[in-house]
Amino acid sequence: MRVTGVLLALVLAAPAAAQDHQEEQDAPIVVTGVSLAQTQKQLADCLARHCPPAEDIEATLAHAENQFIAGDYAGARRTLAKGHGRNYRHRKTLPVEVADLDRAFGRLTNLNGLPDNGWFFQIRSLQALKAGLDDNDGRVLVQRLMVGDEFARAGRERAAEDIYRAVAKRARKTGRFDLLGYAMLREALMYGAIATSWPQYLGASERRIRALENSREPELAPYRSAARLLRAQLALYKGDRAALDKAIAAIPPQPNGKPMLVYAPPVALERTGTTTAKVSDPEWIDVAFRIAADGTVREVETLRDSGNVGKYWTAAVHKAVAARRYTPQATDGAMRIERFSYVHDVAAATGTRLPMRLSRGRISSLDITDDPSRS
Question: Taking the complete model, does pTM exceed 0.90, yes or no?
Answer without folding.
Answer: no
